[in-house]
Design brief:
- Helices cover 65% and strands 2% of the residues.
- It is mainly α and 346 residues long.
- It has one domain.
- A two-stranded antiparallel sheet has the order 1-2.
- A hairpin with a 5-residue loop joins strand 1 and strand 2.
- The protein is globular.
- The N terminus and C terminus are likely disordered.
Length: 346
């Protein structure tokens, strides 16, 4: 009687003898049947299904950490800028506005909550039986490295088009106007590079590690890829909380999710997120006061540059996604061969 051939947790069950299967990360792996043959009396270890509910738990804990850290940092930043802190000071918008005008105060308000946001998913990824870098999609992937930078050129175009379309139907919210005023004032004081690093690098790393690296990687292994990308994109957009901002960010989230899925790596999405945020900060700084009702020449040149470089980046990304396609042998509809059979992945 022929020996029993169980599905390997790291190769495609459909791969024939000696053929190239697909590893956990979608990388080619030779299926050696001789090394894993079992006899009739050999026990078959059942495959365990990935626990998708832990993803919701991590999202909830991350949001809680972000809110708590934001509140604590508001107190710390107020005490640093004003020399003291009280409930009355925290409830006074003018006092809080003075905090955002301080580079150190702004740093505390932006960077520390982002670090708190990403901490739960880093812990969960570390506790996972899958190696941490693989669990967060911090791998080489399928695309050449130069294509990652093409994604960074394309992302601002997605953001600009989304913002323009939303502005045709919805008016900019008060919180978004306040945020733009903060960035504009900081840029005028020569704090531009530091502001780009805070607004560009920190969210690009922290938010991508959580929403694309941890959440999407898990959801696309349990559910069809489209649903996994859609869920992570909606969660990413909802995190921005402001209703207008949430709507405007959804297309960018879908684009970043598609990049991660197609490339098999989180790095293109990180660079694309950084590119979008950096361009957004520069656009606010270059743009004149909205009450002036005019478009400055530097802003006009900057906008044209966004469209030109964005089109080049988008065309390049589309070509790369065709030339360097994901291996079709990956069975993402059946995640059992992707997970370690000893215990479920968190």
């Amino acid at each position: 009687m022929d020996p029993i051939e169980p599905a390997s947790p790291y190769t495609s069950p459909s791969a024939p003898d000696g053929d190239i299967g697909v590893s956990e990360l979608g990388e080619p792996a030779v299926v050696d049947r001789s090394s894993r043959q079992l006899t009739e009396s050999s026990p078959i270890i059942p495959q365990t299904r990935a626990r998708w509910w832990t993803t919701f738990a991590v999202i909830g804990i991350s949001l809680l950490c972000f809110v708590v850290a934001s509140g604590v940092m508001a107190v710390v930043a107020t005490a640093y800028v004003h020399g003291s802190v009280s409930a009355k000071m925290l409830s006074n918008p003018e006092n809080l506005r003075a905090v955002t005008q301080s580079p150190t105060g702004l740093l505390l308000l932006i960077v520390t909550p982002q670090l708190a946001l990403v901490l739960p998913c880093l812990i969960a990824a570390y506790l996972s039986p899958t190696p941490t870098l693989q669990r967060l999609a911090l791998v080489r992937g399928y695309w050449p490295i130069w294509a990652w930078f093409a994604a960074a050129l394309a992302a601002p175009l997605v953001g600009v088009i989304s913002g323009v379309v939303v502005s045709l139907f919805l008016e900019e919210s008060a919180s978004l106007k306040e945020m733009s005023d903060i960035f504009r004032r900081q840029g005028q004081t020569g704090f531009t590079i530091q502001l780009i690093l805070m607004i560009g690098v920190t969210p690009a790393l922290c938010e991508e590690l959580l929403f694309r690296g941890y959440v999407q990687t898990r959801m696309t292994r349990v559910f069809p890829p489209f649903l996994g990308i859609l869920f992570s994109s909606i969660a990413f957009a909802a995190f921005h909380m402001d209703p207008i901002h949430v709507i405007a960010v959804i297309p960018l989230g879908l684009f970043l999710g598609w990049l991660t899925w197609q490339s098999g790596s989180l790095f293109p999405a990180i660079l694309a997120h950084f590119g979008n945020n950096a361009v957004s900060v520069l656009a606010i700084i270059f743009s004149p006061d909205p009450d002036a009702g005019a478009i400055s020449l530097p802003m006009l040149k900057f906008t044209i540059g966004i469209f030109l470089f964005g089109c080049v980046g988008m065309i390049t990304v589309l070509i790369v996604s065709i030339v360097y396609r994901r291996p079709s042998a990956i069975n993402h509809g059946n995640p059992t061969f992707l997970d370690t059979p000893s215990r479920p992945e968190t």
